[in-house]
Design goal:
It is a single chain. 0% of the residues lie in helices and 47% in strands. By secondary structure, the chain is mostly beta strands. Strand 2 and strand 3 form a beta hairpin. It is rod-shaped and about 135 Å long. The C terminus is likely disordered.
């Protein structure tokens, strides 16, 4: 075996008992007891850091989202053992943050959101950094009309306005 666990032993070939050059196997009742191999998991602490995805977007009037997570697994002085550790969301949990209005939306990920397992490491310390979506306010500029008029004893006004949004659109 290569991973931690218990493995049944096995014999290959036939048992032959010799006295000098003579085969005397038939004089014995041979019992094969192959034994077992037990490989114990490493007890050193493995730091599993799970980080939810993050995104920053601009308000557009529609629901927006970010989803997913990444993880690392390190032991000792930062040796990567990720291939030996699995991190998955538990049933009914999701790594998604979504919203429509300008605000910050969290995924609400915690250690209890994940199943973290390893065949070969028994001391897993899990740290979770929650993911988030930030929807920023969309910039808009209202520019009033500018005019020059001559005094005429009556009330005068200007009524034009230009609205400028991000991306050069105007209404």
């Amino acid at each position: 075996g290569t991973d931690a666990g218990t493995y049944d032993g096995a014999f290959t070939g036939e048992v032959v008992i010799k006295a000098g050059n003579d085969d005397v196997t038939s004089n014995y009742k041979v019992t094969k007891d192959p034994g077992k191999l037990t490989i114990k998991p490493i007890a050193d602490e493995v730091l599993v850091t799970i980080t939810g995805e993050t995104a920053e977007k601009t308000y557009n009037g529609a629901e927006q989202s970010v989803e997913g997570f990444k993880y690392t697994a390190t032991i000792g002085e930062g040796e990567n053992v990720k291939g030996e550790v699995k991190a998955a969301l538990k049933d009914g949990k999701e790594a998604i943050a979504k919203g429509t209005n300008a605000d910050k939306y969290m995924m609400s990920l915690t250690k209890d959101s994940f199943n973290v397992t390893s065949k070969n490491y028994s001391n897993l310390k899990v740290v979770v950094n929650d993911g988030s979506l930030v929807i920023n306010k969309r910039p808009v500029t209202f520019t009033g009309e500018t005019a020059e008029k001559t005094y005429n004893t009556k009330e005068q006004e200007i009524t034009g306005i230009t609205v400028s949004k991000t991306g050069g659109e105007s209404d």
